[in-house]
Amino acid sequence: MSKKSKSSALHETDGVSQSDITNLSSIKKIQNKRKAKLDTETLVAEILNGSITALSRAITLVESSNPSHLTQANEVIKACLPNANASIRIGITGVPGVGKSTFIEALGLYLTDLGKKVAVLAVDPSSSLSKGSILGDKTRMEDLVKNDNAFIRPSPSGTSLGGVARKTRESIILCEAAGFDTIIIETVGVGQSETAVHSMVDFFLLLKIAGAGDELQGIKRGIIEMADAIAINKADGDNLKAAKLAKVEFNRALHLYPQKASEWQPKVTLCSALHREGISDLWQHISEYMDFTKANNYFETHRTEQNKFWLLQTIEDRLKSDFFNQPKIKEALQTQLQLIEEGKTTPFVAAEYLLTLQ
Ligand SMILES: Nc1nc2c(ncn2[C@@H]2O[C@H](COP(=O)(O)OP(=O)(O)OP(=O)(O)O)[C@@H](O)[C@H]2O)c(=O)[nH]1
Ligand SMILES: [Mg+2]
Questions:
Q1: Is 96 in the pocket of ligand 1 (CB under 6 A)?
Q2: Which of 25, 48, 329, 331 has the fewest Cβ atoms within 10 angstroms?
Q3: What is the pLDDT of residues 246-270, one digit of tens each?
Q4: Residue 188: in which H helix or E strand, if any?
Q5: Which residue among 274, 279, 281, 282 has the greatest number of ligand 1 atoms within 8 angstroms of its CB, and so is best to mutate?
Q6: Atom 7 of ligand 1, residue of closest alpha carbon
Q7: Considering only CA atoms, which of 152, 155, 208 is closest in space to residue 183?
């Protein structure tokens, strides 16, 4: 190594030599143990016992694209299903930087203090490209990561939102079977991912920050319709006044929307995730929602509707990927796309042709 590079701030110290204790054979043993495929029965028993290692393994199976893993994943989920359901599922959305991760850490710590077991999952199809939010979340949730009663799993990777969402949905079942009673699912407020998360949770929370007074500008109408509560975050310091104004404006706007199927009237609350303020008020609100929807039966019927939706969604996803993954379709599709570009066929004739090929 040259003298120059040693004096650079980027210089790394030479590697630490391997200690005597870790000899090759013990490393091999550990590796083999890790690799050993647990049989389904043992895996399920360990999950039901609350083993985080078993839970993580099962989620890895769910997320795998290896067909043999998928078969085992399906068996595990089937065995876990009777033990799932005894939880509440909360979806959280908001634009990047609104404070979702900070908020989830604050809420998660508040709930573990109450004696709850909290699992945090995510649906973020973009993270598979950047890997950004995975790292970001783990560092933003520093205290929650260390908490024994919390389990945090980054968004599964995948190219289609449908695939990513299915994996998260199946992970919910596994977390519930492992004894987690509160499942928090985070998503970034872009694309269709909110709709996917909305269709797998009991309560949907929209996080906002106060803007320049024109609060409703640029916010998708559909998201407000989905929200069971809106929390204006960063209601602290100089921002508090603007946050209070935003609260009034959102409250007014909410009253203009038709009544929700749940008959629940969403509220707007203020919070500061950073200072962990307003968290208990919001939790009170969520608890009231659970009581209210359990009493009027919406909670149950809503979950049944969600299950029906996911049945149809899964079939749709499977048919689509089975179709597009056939080599002959891949090839013929390219030809048909080219013909369209040259104006030699129409989309409908081309589609008819491709569909007869399978
Ligand atoms: N003042 C203040 N800052 C906050 C609050 N909550 C979060 N922040 C800050 O806002 C920034 C973004 O917070 P994150 O929790 O990473 O936001 P996020 O929504 O998870 O962001 P993405 O993961 O990028 O979508 C960080 O610098 C936080 O410290 C709050 O209540 N008050
Ligand atoms: Mg985040």
A1: yes
A2: 25
A3: 999 889 888 888 889 999 999 999 9
A4: strand 182-188
A5: 274
A6: 99
A7: 152
